[in-house]
Prior knowledge:
Helices cover 55% and strands 0% of the residues. It is mainly alpha-helical and 171 residues long.
Amino acid sequence: MGTYPASHSILVFIVAMLLALLISSLMEYVVHRLMHKRIVLGQKHLEHHVEGTGQGWWGEFLDYFLPSLPFLWFGFFYSIAAGTGWFMGGFIYACIAAYAHQVQHDNPDLVFWLKKPVHHLHHKGKMWHNNFGITFSFWDMVFGTYKDIDWKPEKERRQYRLADYFQIQWF
């Protein structure tokens, strides 16, 4: 068995992490879409739409992270670097997705990484067939489920302070 330079391990780590982030975003889209067909957690998701609130960052994080645990070790079949990158990608995505979901319920103006807060619009527009992406709208665009809806933030995003981005329900 040959040995590889450290740069190879770093590259493998980065590629595995990016792949995990990409696949996690796809899974978020697919699972959310299945929720609307009532195939997965239909009643719980219906209640979420009726209430129109998140469950706090921690609750959202657990909903993303715990179901991914059985898959987060797959990268270790390839190497320690791939396994670590794959695990970190899944963990980081769960953190980001939990924030994205909660902030769109608490203050959609703070969704700085999207032109429009698609999950907020999904709820506001009572969309059962569009805008299934929560963290990103990429997969909605790929699969033709993106629906552009009029939305204007209450104030310009640059008027927010850094501390404002942390004023969400955490627990």
